[in-house]
Design goal:
single chain; alpha/beta; Rossmann fold; six-stranded parallel sheet; two-stranded antiparallel ribbon; 8 strands; 57% helix; globular
Length: 279
């Protein structure tokens, strides 16, 4: 993994939630920061982290370094934003990768940025490219690629990197799943020289029309996960159960720390009175 100069000056100081440093950015300000990264022209990446990714960070020590190398990390989960409300600096809103991809493509169409779509099931990247170009006339799709799910040979891997480099994209959207996508980006973004790369998960399938987004009221209520689980119960039920258990552990840990802090404060308040009695 190559060390990168992580973030432009306009990214505010991070807010740490459950050990992950989230940037307190809105959807609109995230688009502006990506614009600045493209203008800078140096290889970089950012992460859209939902509750599942936070759990994976706790389970996989290598992700801590990947998080530190990111230009910024967005809170793509209602539980993360809710937990941050108890901190001195809260997170302004959830920034869903499945929303951000459309805003970035709209900006790319206006400014002439080149987009590359990598990954997702066979045919999805091509369908997403066609749908995005239809939605945003003038959008330049520099290329699409769908490597096999198995581990690539060295020759196949090098050929894929050559294909991306030759396309000269400004933004590389990757749909490899978590944390495979984040690991791939951290290992390869400097080699392909793309100004901005991001793992987008199912966003390409949303863009292609393979899956529908939850109704807006479900998104605002923080229950989009339920809508998604009904779409893919076999794949997502066990994952969301693990996420719920992790969230429960984080809440218990926070409650215990709060109780310990309250006990320490009470002990500190009693200390002067005890000293006075001794005199």
């Amino acid at each position: 993994m190559t060390d990168l100069d992580p973030s432009p000056a306009l990214v505010p100081p991070p807010v740490r939630v459950w050990g992950v440093p989230f940037a307190p950015l809105t959807l609109d300000s995230s688009v502006e920061v990506v614009d600045a990264l493209i203008a800078r022209g140096e290889p970089s990446y950012f992460i859209t982290a939902n509750l599942h990714y936070v759990m994976l960070t706790h389970q996989n020590p290598d992700l801590a370094a990947i998080n530190r190398g990111a230009a910024f990390i967005l809170a793509d989960g209602a539980p993360i934003v809710k937990a941050a409300r108890e901190l001195p600096t809260p997170l302004p809103e959830r920034v869903a990768g499945s929303d951000l991809i459309f805003h970035l493509c709209e900006r790319a169409a206006r400014k002439g940025h080149r987009i590359f779509l990598l990954g997702a099931p066979p045919g999805v990247a091509e369908e997403a490219a066609a749908a995005l170009v239809a939605k945003y006339p003038g959008l330049m799709i520099a290329g699409t690629a769908c490597p096999p799910f198995r581990k690539l040979s060295d020759a196949e891997h090098e050929a894929l990197l050559d294909e991306i480099r030759a396309a000269r994209p400004d933004v590389l959207f990757i749909a490899f799943g978590q944390p495979k996508g984040e690991r791939w980006i951290a290992e390869n973004v400097a080699r392909v020289g793309v100004p901005v790369a991001v793992q987008v998960g199912a966003s390409l399938e949303f863009a292609a029309g393979r899956f529908a987004r939850a109704p807006r009221w479900m998104q605002k209520a923080g229950v989009e996960w339920l809508f998604r689980m009904l779409q893919e119960p076999r794949r997502l039920a066990s994952r969301y159960a693990s996420n719920a258990a992790f969230l429960g552990r984080m809440k218990v840990r926070r409650a215990l720390r709060g109780r310990e802090a309250a006990h320490a404060d009470a002990h500190a308040a009693d200390a002067p009175r005890e000293a006075a009695r001794e005199h």
